[in-house]
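Minutes, project check-in
Item: structure for the 1254-residue chain
Input as provided by the requester:
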Amino acid sequence: MSATTAAFDSATAPEYPRHVVTAVLVSHDGARWLPDALTGLIGQERPVQNVIAADTGSADESATLLTESLGPDRVVHLARRTSFGTAVEEAVRTAGVLTPDDLPYLKRPSGWDPVTRTWHDEAYDMPDLPHGEPVQWLWLLHDDCAPEPDALAELLRVVDTDSHAAIVGPKLRGWYDRKQLLEVGVSIANSGRRWTGLDRREQDQGQHDQVRTVLSVSSAGMLIRRDVWEELGGFDRRLPLMRDDVDLCWRAHAAGHRVLVAPDAVLRHAEAAARERRTVDCAGRSVVNPHRVDKAGAVYTMLVNSRGAVLPYVLLRLVVGTLLRTVAYLVGKAPGQAVDEVMGLSGTLLRPGRIIGARKRRGKGVVEASELRALFPPPGATVRATVEQVAGSLGGGSETEAGGSRHGAVESGPGGDDADFLEIEQFARLKRLAHKPGPVLFAVLLVVSLVACRALLGGGALAGGALLPAPPDVAGLWSRYADGWHPVGTGGTQTAPPYLAVLAALSALFLGSTGFALTLLLVCSVPLAGVTAYFASRPLVESKLLRAWASVAYAFLPAATGALATGRLGTAVLAVLLPLIARAAVAAYGIRAEPKEGATGAARGSWRATWAYTFLLTLAMAFTPIVWPIALVLGLAVLALRRDDIVAYGLRLLAVVGTPLLVLAPWSLSLLTSPSNLFHEAGLEFGTGQATALDLLGMSPGGPKAAGGVLLIGVVLAALAALLRGERQFAVRAAWVTALVALVFAVLANNSGWAGPATLLYGLALIAAAVLGADGARERVASQSFGWRQPVAALIAVAAGAAPLLAAGGWMLSGASGPLERRDPVQVPAFVAEESITRDQPRTLILGGTSPAEVSYSLVRGSGGRLGDAELTESGGSDPGLDKVVGRLVAGSGADQTDQLSGFAIRYVLVRDGAPAQMSRVLDATPGLSRLSQLDGSALWRVDRQISRATIVEGESDAEPLPVGSSTVEAHTDIPAGKAGRVLRIADRAAEGWQATLDGRLLEKTTVDGWAQGFELPAEGGRLDLTYEDSFAHTAWVWAQAALGVVLLVLALPGRRREIDDDLPDERADVPAQPVSGEGRRARRLRAAAQAEAEAETAEGADSGGDDSVTTVPPPPAEAPYAAAAVPQQQSYGEWDGRSSYQGADYGSYTNEQQYQGGQDEQQQYEGAPYQGGQQYDGTQQYEGAPQYDADGYQQYQQYPADQYQQQAPVQYDQYGYVVQQPYAEGQQPYTAPQQPYTEGNENEQRPDGSSNK
């Protein structure tokens, strides 16, 4: 018999005897997990016939643990940089193959009966191999995986049933959270993503317990036939650690073998390398990040195993997916992972020889690729998973998620006695919703808003008041912002307002629908404002009722409802952003509503909060510039308050006020040169100075649907009452300072514009002060003797509470529509709009005014003005030439005005309804104008002359201009030959960017009539191309703005939470008993009784000294900082959790009588030689670190930092490695490494948990 042969009793055969299993265990710095791994391996109900271990240069005690447990002849020592596949290959080569000569039970018995000393003839009728030809298997194990006692038996049951199975793998669960599923088979997507088909932290409830074919199983616990292993050549040496299992199983499928998963076989896996619990040393000359190793392995696996027809598509997916993930990691502030993505891809692609060689070695498989298609993720699955991952990263952890995580105590439902404590009442659902009023609040506000905005829903476009109709698609918005030439009026190169770009980006999220985006911002502004106010008020007070009241009061401020009625897009957007801006500003400047306990000074705000504040302020400034000077004034006030740290806060203030100016330049710089524009907002100027002094004090800016300022006097009184509060005065006074600053700006804005944005801030600050004052007011008032305070407080509370409700009710009944309405966006007669898009590109002059002395006009193209035209016209300035033409036209000089009108390509003159009647009479008497129609009070005249945007003027002659076909900006047409000295005249302002060519020859520029763009034409004809070329500076700055916006967004976003270790020990925290479902008084009473009984048993066990007594673990010391917390949903994991279970190996069904006992019972046990070198392994032997579970729940004892045990050890263990001291049967000794300080020579040393090493 060879040295590696296991000696068994020939009369006894194990379960599934024809299957000969050699366990291969590879370790690398795994001392913290090896005790459990060895316990699981040696404690198998169906033991392995042979075991071999390989240690790859571990720096901890892994090699010692293996040697002392398995014997020195069963441990192979390899270099530290040895890969997992190479270690397995060396271990398999060393182990050899066990034959029937090594395993006597495989052969026919001799027939000799030593008891009766006779021969049995029936033995001679048996075949030489009664169990059949032996099948050799390799069971691959990691040092960080612990199999359940029946894991191998379940694996063999599957392969014994299915003779074609070549590879079978177990179900993997978490190491600490033993109900968390990690893998039940694994696949790979075209993007290289490892696909398990499981939800994050999905709990095992038997939902995946079906034996089925899978693409791959994990190498942790993989059972593979030895002949298949040798046929495939083992793991690919180009895959040092990760994705080697997928590659191996993929090759097995291609070779015609079956790969199955056996869910009844369970392993716990720590995933130490992937979770960065230890370093990866086998993938290079230095330590490599596991993400890079995994990426490189994924790319290699896909490129060497994909069939040739789809290889280009796979390569494209890998490259595009890598680029997208790199951008996502950069946005999520994870540059290291972004680098890993790029390096993992490039490191593989830059070695094409390896890929070509690997594909040649694999050759053409015997199985068609179409037969394996079902084993890969379905189309779109990885996209959905990515979306869910991004949503989870940005959404943060909710209470529900926290409760459902491995750190929470979650019950699947009442059962047994717990059903008595389940509350069954009529309003239980409403009570649950009361704990999460945010979604309910939004739903209620949305319903109220939809009812109030009933007239604003339906077909058509939102327009009226300060709002012009939006362009039909997102391309129109982008072009209005990014183009260097703006075809508005007579055209110009002025800077477009930046809110167009913001609105275009939002519209792009809704498939380019600008109308939907505009409707969302206006119609949903009230509910969105309420929701943002609710969530922004979380740091202010804890009372959800007060926060809900504050959000409702803010949502129905007169400025918010008035902005919706009058189409003030800027104020509507500010209403949504302002609470978030306020919260970000407080965080940026380190201002707390209530100082933290133990804080000695003012906390400095974080830079991430500063950038979030800056980003939100930049967005708001694009719509309402007034927020910038307000932020400047408030920032200077904070700077004066924090003058002791003026440098730090000065830099923050500089970033806050300087970044918006930079990102929004040059538009923002024009605000500094014209400060009056700071009081304007997005859209047309519509009504100024509409608020009285009482309105402003009552938070109303005046105007349609902005009434109700008097109703909000209660809120003002509540804010004043907050000044009487003794504590939290800093927060109250800060709110009042903000309110007074906003009130000053409201007065200034009321003189030149609309005071809505400033009154929004004024109202928000007063509501914040009122909430601070109301927090705890009931207890403070009740603690005092009855007097005038109680009635006054009650009146203020009633007035403040009823005001927003009355405002909401009145707004809902009267409706939200005012000047804003949903109508046809065409502002001129339909035939005029159709004619304006022909090759002549005629324009319409719209006249209006209230008296003949004051005439307003606009020159429109197409169907009328669109969003952004008002700002472009204002920033472009007046056109003196057009002013003179309009002046002569309405003055009634009696002269022919057709020449002047045709010079501006004006074909129609439209007089608005409400204009003076004298204006119509003048136009009727003007030569060259013909009245066409009168509709809805408006009148229309046509110019009796050929009108075209582009014409050819014959020099000094009086010939009629020759029209030239063109589009809105460009012209591409053929022109005839003519006389020399001709000029191509464009009815647009002259600008540097205009260019014209004739048959490719550049034409000379000229200015016609002092303002129009012209080009000198030669006598010959040809192909005319007229274009406007944006300057390089303009194009570069637009791209720079986009880049700055993205950078600012990235800086503002929270960093990506790398939840690598989502399988950690349960947190130790004292959780007070609370009467929730299943946790009533009776439940606590029963639990206390059980605890008292357990303590009594502990004391009794400590006093007894019999042979059958068990030394229990002493309770945690009094000075322990944490107490053990039970997790009800993890009370048991099967039959092996009972109190009568074998406590050392964590498996109750594997009792002391069933354990492997060396060679003590030859009739039932195998000899101890296969597993022991020179030292026997007693089945009841314990390893430090193996957790103990009782029948009452998942209860771990006190944890202690690892360094308490390692003051003399050269290698430090992680604190999660050995966390629980286990009980040992009397007379037994736990496994103790030689390096431990409390072993030999320290027998009397007391451990931190109170026990000793005696």
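Outcome recorded: Residues 789-814 form the longest helix (26 residues).
No further action items on this chain.
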